[in-house]
């Protein structure tokens, strides 16, 4: 059954069609997976590599994906209904296929590795613009451009065919000679005898007999390729080959990391962090936050990176370390509630499950205030964390103790929020003045004196501060 590429078009004569996506669930238990049977046909109709929609499914479903390009097997871990995948495919088409101007699917993607952007150009209307780079798939596209050959693609087959037809090797020379009915003359002008043999593609190739004899007798022919017909698989040779690769090709070799489990990618990120810290290079430390952000994005673990920081960077001197690594934490946590929640979770584990428990347990409120004052963790995230004590990562009694020590700061934060709300609702009795160059208004509350005692207290130098001290259980300046 053929579907319109643009599902918003109901015209049955719409020229852009694609096959309906077919999915098959295999395995059971933890090994259950969904195979997209006709991923290649669907991708061909969209003029996109089949890895793009499959990776899009993984990003949207939060599942790992697997590509067996050689055998055309594209897998999304977990059991997923074909209709659900078809709906996600429509989302992929809207974001990465259709032209935003004319909604025509005749578009091409042009990744720019240097600027880290992807532009889309429509062949129908000529519209050109940049894709929304906030989606995780854009990272995958930058590392795997549409025209980049992958394992099992036609790029590898072309090289074999060209080798046999261009005359770049002994086999190619024999094929060219056989086609023209002539042999390539030797250096002394004599044409060496030859015999025919069947090539890999089924073609009959004409190979010099002397060369065959040398190979069969174990001789080392005059061709330089004879000395190195096999690939050196030692670790040193492999490292040398990787170092010789260009930057773009090197990035392609690193895409396998994204197929590893999240725990493994977090471990790789922790090792990368440890190597950066142990290098001791001052210049490297200046760009530490940028380097770590780039590596976290490459491994797609940006939201959970704060868990690694809590394990590898923090100790019993947590308050000082929060100031030391403030820029790094801001890089990962600003406008990212998930990263903020994982940071609080990591600190909770640091306090509850390490040898620093006795040192840090009394300072829980101080730690939260430091995170709040430094703009690392937002008020809503702290309040949400306080309502849901964790029992998964630390014992329940330890979690209760941590939240009990956090209660004074959480109480102050809640009361401050309620005061702000009441201030917005009713301004009676408030004197609002704006200071020069101030970002937020300064609010002074005019408290009326009771029974004339306010003036007396003021004369005695006590005023209303004593009452405020009696009402507040927490002196926030001490936190």
Plain-language structure description:
The protein has 479 residues and is of the alpha+beta class. The protein contains 22 helices and 13 strands. The strands form five sheets. Strands 3-4-6-5 form a four-stranded antiparallel sheet, covered by helices on one side. Strand 5 (65-68) and strand 6 form a beta hairpin. The chain is globular. It starts with a strand and ends in an 8-residue tail after the last helix. Mean pLDDT is 75; it is low at 151-192, 210-229 and 427-472.
Strand order of the largest sheet: 3-4-6-5
H/I helix tally: 22
- Which topology of one domain does CATH recognise? Serine Threonine Protein Phosphatase 5, Tetratricopeptide repeat
| Low-pLDDT regions | 151-192, 210-229, 427-472
Q: Determine the fraction of residues in helical runs and give it as a percent range.
A: 40-55%
Largest sheet, strands/sense/barrel: 4 strands, antiparallel
């Amino acid at each position: 059954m053929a579907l319109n590429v643009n599902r918003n078009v109901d015209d049955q004569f719409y020229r852009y069609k694609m096959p309906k996506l077919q999915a098959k669930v295999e395995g059971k238990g933890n090994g259950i997976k969904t195979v997209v049977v006709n991923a290649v046909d669907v991708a061909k109709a969209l003029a996109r590599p089949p890895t793009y929609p499959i990776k899009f499914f993984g990003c949207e479903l939060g599942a790992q994906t697997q590509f067996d390009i050689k055998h055309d097997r594209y897998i999304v871990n977990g059991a997923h209904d074909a209709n659900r995948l078809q709906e996600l495919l429509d989302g992929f088409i809207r974001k990465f296929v259709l032209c935003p101007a004319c909604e025509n699917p005749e578009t091409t993607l042009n990744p720019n590795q240097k600027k880290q952007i992807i532009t889309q150009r429509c062949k129908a209307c000529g519209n050109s613009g940049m894709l929304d780079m906030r989606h995780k798939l854009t990272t995958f596209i930058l590392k795997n451009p549409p025209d980049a050959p992958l394992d099992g693609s036609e790029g590898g087959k072309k090289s074999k065919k060209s080798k046999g037809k261009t005359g770049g090797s002994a086999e190619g020379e024999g094929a060219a000679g056989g086609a023209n009915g002539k042999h390539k003359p030797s250096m002394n002008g004599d044409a060496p005898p030859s015999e025919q043999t069947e090539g890999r593609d089924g073609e009959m190739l004409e190979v010099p007999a002397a060369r065959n004899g040398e190979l069969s007798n174990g001789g080392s022919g005059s061709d330089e390729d004879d000395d190195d017909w096999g690939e050196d698989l030692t670790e040193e040779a492999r490292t040398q080959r990787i170092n010789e690769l260009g930057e773009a090709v090197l990035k392609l070799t690193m895409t396998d990391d994204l197929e590893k489990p999240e725990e493994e990618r977090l471990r790789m990120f922790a090792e990368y962090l440890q190597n950066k810290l142990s290098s001791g290079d001052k210049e490297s430390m200046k760009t530490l936050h940028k380097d770590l952000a780039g590596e976290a994005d490459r491994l797609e673990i940006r939201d959970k990176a704060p868990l690694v920081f809590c394990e590898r960077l923090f100790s019993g001197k947590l308050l000082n370390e929060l100031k030391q690594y403030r820029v790094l934490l801001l890089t990962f946590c600003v406008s990212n509630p998930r990263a903020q929640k994982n940071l609080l979770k990591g600190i909770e584990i640091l306090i509850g499950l390490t040898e620093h428990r006795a040192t840090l347990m009394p300072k829980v409120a101080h730690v939260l205030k430091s995170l709040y004052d430094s703009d690392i963790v937002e008020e809503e995230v702290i309040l949400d964390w306080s309502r849901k004590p964790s029992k998964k990562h630390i014992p329940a009694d330890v979690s209760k103790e941590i939240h009990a020590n956090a209660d004074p700061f959480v109480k102050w934060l809640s009361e401050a929020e309620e005061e702000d709300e009441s201030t917005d609702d009713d301004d009676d009795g408030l004197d609002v003045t704006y200071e020069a160059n101030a970002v937020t208004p300064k609010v002074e509350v005019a408290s009326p004196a009771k029974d004339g005692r306010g003036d007396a207290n003021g004369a005695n130098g006590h005023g209303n501060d004593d009452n405020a001290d009696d009402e507040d259980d927490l002196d926030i300046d001490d936190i």
